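Hey, I'm writing a tutorial for new members on how sequence and structure tokens pair up, and I'd like a real worked example in the thread rather than a made-up one. If someone can provide the structure for the chain below, I'll link this post from the tutorial.
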Amino acid sequence: MTEKPHLMIVEARFYEDIADELVKGAIAEIEKEGATYQRVSVPGCLEIPAAILYALRSMDFFTARKRFDGYVGLGCVIRGETTHYDIVCNESARGLQDLALRYALAIGNGVLTVENREQAWARASVTAKNKGGFAARACLDMIELKRQFRLYPR
């Protein structure tokens, strides 16, 4: 029998209420799979890739294995009056994609990039689009794909 995956959820807390809803959806999907998880909080979406890299470079002291089979990045970027929105959206997505490609990581990108809070809630709500659950599912599916190709996660 295959060992159940262990995931790291990295939640950007800038919009705490939206982050909580994204996490709720992700946890439900992870638990439905019978997988386990650890939550890590970061200030904003730009910090998500760095947190994943920190975890990737750490080893479990007792087993000398990588700690996580996959990673779920969750957060929200709402357009404001400046171009900072574009930088945060592009760089957080690029950072996650770079990690996935460089290190063959299973990453579910649940960073919402929206125009306003109404759009954010429509996407975060577990009773609507449930993007937190979708990101967790994407991560779990990529872990399974890695196993099919014998790229064992840990």
